[in-house]
Specification:
alpha+beta; 2 domains; five-stranded antiparallel sheet; three-stranded antiparallel sheet; 8 helices; 13 strands
Length: about 260
């Protein structure tokens, strides 16, 4: 479609002139001109780092001054196992007789995702699985200051998780070939998405049907600037995609062009 992707090119600042965006400046100093700027970056980075503070509403200032410590599904414990689990459901909840300690929390339920339905995610006869836990950003932020303790805690959590699953799927412990534990710090390092901001109500999951109508966020004092993505209200993958699609539809209207989708 004539687009271009620039990798390893983090945006440092949105460039504006007379209340209108005119491009972006990268961390390496390169400036790219643009008629419109759409930010799908993490909300905190977009509002607190990339644009001038004078454009923020009182609501945005309030939201980003109150970080949320508790992160839903913020800890991902993944395994590659030498077992064919295609006879198991895609999503399973295991209720434990005795709770296990995970990152300082007592956990009595293991929520497991079984990716055996996608043959591209593991070699034949093997399966990728993942358990997810709610966790606290501050817990991992403090642990990450000591890399040795941080890695040890991840190893302990992986061990406790697979031992718990073993009670329901005998033999799975010996079948583990690959282990990966992704903490909130991992997510922040790879994607720049960190803890949530604002009240929980600001980031609740919207009604499923409304997700397809998700519109980009705009700022009255900064023209031709759009913000999209999960951190400002996009619901799941399809909702975020709809938000991007609706942004292009709006730009087409501003440019007096027909919006055509294949």
């Amino acid at each position: 479609l004539g687009g271009e992707i620039l990798y390893n090119s983090s945006v440092e600042r949105v460039i504006e002139d007379s209340g209108k965006v005119v491009g972006v400046r990268l961390e390496n100093g390169t400036e790219i001109s643009a008629n419109y700027v759409i930010s799908d970056a993490y909300g905190y980075d977009t509002f607190m780092k990339m644009i001038d503070e004078r454009h923020l509403t009182d609501r945005l200032r309030s939201m980003y001054s109150k970080p949320i410590d508790r992160m839903m599904m913020g800890l991902h414990v993944s395994f590659g196992v030498n077992m064919d689990l295609s006879d198991k459901p895609n999503a399973i909840s295991f209720f434990l007789d005795e709770p296990i300690e995970i990152a300082g929390d007592n956990c009595s339920i293991i929520n497991l995702l079984n990716y055996s339905y996608d043959k591209k995610l593991a070699p034949k006869g093997k399966t990728s699985i993942k358990a997810m836990y709610d966790t606290y950003y501050s817990y991992w932020e403090e642990l990450s200051k000591d890399q040795k303790k941080y890695e040890e805690e991840k190893a302990i959590i992986a061990s406790r998780t697979i031992e718990a699953i073993e009670r329901f799927i005998p033999g799975i412990g010996e079948a583990v070939e690959v282990t990966d534990v992704a903490t909130p710090i991992t997510t922040e390092r790879f994607t720049s998405n960190a803890r949530g901001y604002g009240s929980k109500e600001d980031f609740r999951l919207r009604d499923t049907l409304k997700g397809f109508l998700n519109k980009p966020m705009t700022l009255k004092s900064l023209k031709n600037f759009f913000v999209i993505g999960h951190s400002i209200g996009g619901t799941n993958l399809y909702g975020c995609a709809a938000m991007g699609r609706n942004t292009i539809r709006r730009i087409c209207k501003m440019e007096h062009r027909n919006f055509v989708a294949s």
